[in-house]
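INTERNAL AUDIT FORM
Audit reference: QA-55
Scope: verify that the stored structure record matches its stored sequence.
Auditor: D.O.
Record contents follow.
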Amino acid sequence: MTVVDIHAHVFPEIGRAEARRLTGSDEAPWLRTTDGPDAGMMMAGSAEYRPVRRTLWDPAERVADLDRLGVDVQVVSSTPLLFGYQLETGRAVDWCRTVNSHLLAYGSHAPHRLAPLCQVPLQDTEAACAMVTEAMAQGFHGVHIGNHLGDLDLDHGALVEFLAHCAEEDAAVLVHPWDLPSGPRYSRYMLAWLAGMAGETHLTILSLILSGAFERLPASLRLLFAHGGGSFPYLLGRADNAWHRRDLVRADSPHPPSHYTDRFSVDSAVFDPGALRLLVDVMGAERVLLGSDHPFPLGEEEIGRLVRESGLTPEERDAILGGNAVRFFGLTPAPAPAPASAAALTPAGKGAVR
């Protein structure tokens, strides 16, 4: 069985001078590094944002981590701090191309083990669509986006247009919460991450459902929400109840929220056996994919352990650990010598690994 982790981040070695030149901003994100395994600092201008491990930017260290953890393939995406949605279009295009170039180089270190997702200038629909087309031709496996754009959620017309284009390009879409709620109530105890992230993803999923966006989007769209879909799976009953009882809630959605759980997938990063079993009950095992949030401290330290120890059936376990990801990202196991952990992946119908 091939184990595939679909939620893992990269922060390329972009220095401050390059970040400033590309973005025109002294507050641009960049990476400060020194020697040693834990010698990185994500920076926002002159401010320290988060200490990080070398595996975040060093693909050799990442592959060594995967070997140690028993992960065959990891789908890697940029750290959301790098999205650049606040930039004007020209700078945003240059910035995304630079990040994407680093991601391709990172993946090329071990093309059978590291499968990159691109990022795009989501603030300009035409430019974002063009970059998805460009990136898929370059060998990316899909696109990684934030769950909103300022006050616009993914049900906004321009963003629905972008998602429809991803479906046309057969580009899988990983949606990650970002630009989290702020203020005194969220500033303590990492509450923006512990409460804000779950709420943000829940809000985005409900926005797509209740606005009727899923009625306008092609069924072929492969949409995946990080962090187990936030609080959506655990509050779905409340949303269904509201749809049945209030015309204000159902005004633009012809079906209750539970009708649409077959239109998207989620990862397994919920960190509790009971939560994972409920997630599988709500979404169906075929729409839950192994996700770790590696290599950040809030991620799953032993990738896949929760899935293996949550009392799922063998079929559910194997699907979540790898089978679903193989299908979702259009991958097929390529012939390789034993053991199975050395198995390579190639995109279906594409020959060599992109």
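Auditor finding: record pair retrieved intact. Residues 89-108 form the longest helix (20 residues).
Action required: none
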